[in-house]
Amino acid sequence: MSATPDPSPRRRSRLSAWLLSLLVVLLLVAAAGWYGWQWWQARQAASDADATMQLDALSERVAALRRDQRAQAQRLQQADATNRVLRDELLGLGERSAIIEDSFARFADPDRHGAQALRLDETELLLSLGQQRLLVAGDLDGARRAYALAAGVLAGVDDPTYLSLRQSLGQERAALEAIEVEPRAQALARLATFAATVASAAPVPRHDAAQSNGQPWWRRAFAAIVEVQPTDRAVAVQPADIAAARAGLQLEISLARAAAERRDVDGYRAALARADAWLTRLLPPSDERERQRRQLREIASLPLSLSLPPLGTTLRQLRESRATRRES
Predict the structure, then answer these.
(1) Per-residue pLDDT tens over the stretch 200-258
(2) What start-end ranges are recorded for coiled-coil regions in this protein (predicted)?
(3) Cα 131 to Cα 197: distance, rounded to the nearest angstrom
(4) Which of 60, 228, 237, 261 is least crowded, fewest Cβ atoms below 10 Å from its Cβ?
C-alpha cells in the first residue's frame, strides 16, 4: 500500500498567503484612508482660511462703509450749517434793504426838507420832554417852559396843515397855567407840616425817676405794687408805650411820603390810615386829637397825579399828522 501526501502544509501555505494578501490590502486601505483624511483636513483648513479672509475683508468693507457714512453725515451737517448761515445772511441783507428803503422813503418825505422838518422834529422833542417832566418828575415849571418853547418853534411853521396843532397847544398851555401847584408836591408839603405839628403836640415820655420825684411818698411807696392804667388800654401811658407810638407814627408818615413819591395812591392812603391808628394810641381823646385826625384824613384824600385831559393831545396829533403825510 503506497503512502499519500499530507495536504495540511499546502493548506497552511495557502492560508498564510491569503492572510498576507489581506493584511497588505488592509495596510493599503488604511494608508489610503490616512492620506485621504490628511487631504480632507488640509482642504478644510484652506477653506476655513479662505472664509476667514473673506470675513475679514467683509468686516473691513463694512468699517469703510461706516466711515464713509460718518463722513457723509458730517458733510451734511456742515452743509446744513452753511445753509443756515447763508439764510441768516440773506435775511440780514433783506433787513438792510428794508432799512435802506425806509431811509430813502424818509428822505423823500417833503416834511423832511428844509427848516420845516427841523422845526417839527424840535416841536415833537419839546412836547415829549414837557410831558415827561410833568408826569414823571412832577416839574410843573419845567413842563410850562418846554411847552412855551414848543409853541415858539411851532409858530415858525408856515404850513396851514399844522394850524390846528397851534390851537391844541394853546389849550394845553392854558390848562397848565391854570394849575397852581402839582398835586404830589402839595400832598408832600401838607404831610410834612402835619408831621411837624403832631411831633410837637405828642407827649414826650419821661423817666420814671423824674415822675416819682414829684409824687407823694405813699404813691412812691406803693408804685412798685399797684399800677394804675386805663381799662381800655387805648392811650399809651407808660414811657415805653409812648415812645413806641411816636416811632410807629413817624414810620407810617415816612412810608406815606415814599408812596407819594412813587404816586402809589393805595399805599399812601393805607400808610395814613395806620398813622391815624397810632395817633389815637398816642393822644388822649380831645378836640385837638379830632382836629389832627380830620387833617390827616384830608391829607389822605388829596390826589397824587394830575387829572389833565388835554395833556398830550398836541403831541399825538403831530405824530398822527406826520405819519399820515408819510403814507400818502
Answers:
(1) 665 555 444 444 455 566 555 555 555 555 444 566 667 777 788 788 888 888 888 88
(2) none
(3) 35
(4) 228
